[in-house]
Write a structure and sequence with these properties.
By secondary structure, the chain is α/β, with parallel strands linked by helices. The protein has a domain of about 230 residues: 3-Layer(aba) Sandwich (Rossmann fold). Strands 1-2-3-5-4-6-7-8-9 form a nine-stranded mixed beta sheet, sandwiched between helices. The radius of gyration is 21 Å and the shape is globular. It starts with 19 loop residues before the first strand and ends in a 12-residue tail after the last helix. GO terms for molecular function: serine hydrolase activity. Pfam families: DUF829. This is DUF829 domain containing protein.
Length: about 325
């Protein structure tokens, strides 16, 4: 994002968080403001005693530099990381484990994000949470720059080559679309990501007219002044049409003709003020016509970006059915 006068006001959540989550089963590393990596540490190797006749070459006494994520310039400045070695715990991540790329809704609380994060961690995926800021949307060029930054992170050794599952909710779908734009433009090595995506979950996307977008801003930013924010946003879109409305229309075209053709699952509802269900079904039909395997779950009544909370059993059974062919295991039974 740029350094405009409002960038500090609308910056993503930057709270310090503990280095371990899930009862110590998972490690948390903040890559940068708004982007956090959660992973399962590798089990500690079973090494022979010092005086064992076993060759020390089979079990080195010290890890090679590449096994320590803190030696990477990508992860070395994480203020939230707890030094696991001081607790005699491993702190290395597998670079072959599938990666969940999660784009939450605007203003998502940590406890809400944790429910989705843990859902996938328990299924054997590592998770990269990418939060979106309102200025990424209001000034799309900053959103595109942010998408480019996410793409560069995905090309780092810790993430490159991994299978990727995408879960985008609400405005998170907009940020994911910025990545699709970069892939479609063929910039750098970005096109390779399209082949790495094994599935995409589109949850409560904001689809429809500019008015739907303006309503979304009002409901999210200042609910008590929803009408005022909506009208202000519509005026802003008109005033900076070439930098906003035209850019949004191009984003919609790219999304409809997405370069990522992995199987997709859409969650939406008929009563969502931020999403036109007719426009959503049109997108689904377009994807299917292009040969994309698309599943969908539509509710007559639900809550934007909270379908899992409103319809937990239905939501989870639909998700499990979608993930099964992708070889993503259900969580282990808890005793």
């Amino acid at each position: 994002m740029g350094n405009g006068p409002l960038s500090g006001v609308f910056r993503a959540d930057a709270e310090a968080t503990p280095g371990q989550v899930g009862g110590g089963r998972f490690i948390e590393r903040r890559i940068r403001n708004g982007i956090t990596y959660y992973y399962t540490p590798l089990p500690e190797p079973l090494c022979p005693a010092k005086d064992s006749p076993t060759s020390p070459d089979l079990c080195p006494l010290t890890d090679p530099p590449s096994a320590d994520p803190s030696s990477s310039p990508l992860l070395s400045d994480s203020p939230s990381h707890t030094n696991a070695s001081s607790h005699n715990q491993p702190d290395s991540a597998s670079t072959s484990r599938p990666l969940l790329l999660f784009f939450p809704w605007l203003g998502a609380k940590p406890v809400a994000v944790a429910k989705y994060r843990d859902l996938y961690l328990d299924r054997g995926l590592d998770v990269l949470v990418v939060r979106s800021g309102v200025m990424h949307f209001l000034w799309p060029r900053w959103g595109l720059d942010y998408g480019r930054e996410v793409m560069n992170i995905l090309e780092e050794p810790q993430f490159s080559g991994r299978p990727v599952l995408v879960h985008a909710s609400s405005i998170g779908g907009y940020t994911f679309t910025q990545i699709l734009i970069l892939i479609a433009q063929g910039q750098g090595n970005y096109a390779g990501l399209a082949q790495r995506v094994i599935g995409q979950i589109c949850d409560s996307l904001v689809v429809g007219t500019l008015e739907h977008m303006a309503i979304g801003l009002g409901k999210t930013l200042v609910p008590r002044l929803e009408g005022f924010v909506k009208n202000t946003a519509l005026f802003y879109f008109w005033l900076f049409k070439t930098h906003t409305a035209d850019f949004y229309n191009n984003s919609i075209r790219v999304f409809q003709n997405s370069p990522v053709t992995a199987p997709a699952l859409f969650y939406f509802s008929e009563d969502d003020a931020l999403c036109d269900p007719v426009a959503m079904e049109k997108v689904i039909d377009l994807w299917r016509a292009r040969g994309v395997a698309v599943e969908s779950r539509k509710w007559k009544e639900s809550t934007h970006a909270a379908h899992m909370r409103r319809h937990p059993r239905d939501y989870m059974s639909t998700l499990e059915k979608f993930l099964r062919p992708l070889a993503i295991s259900p969580p282990e039974a808890k005793v």
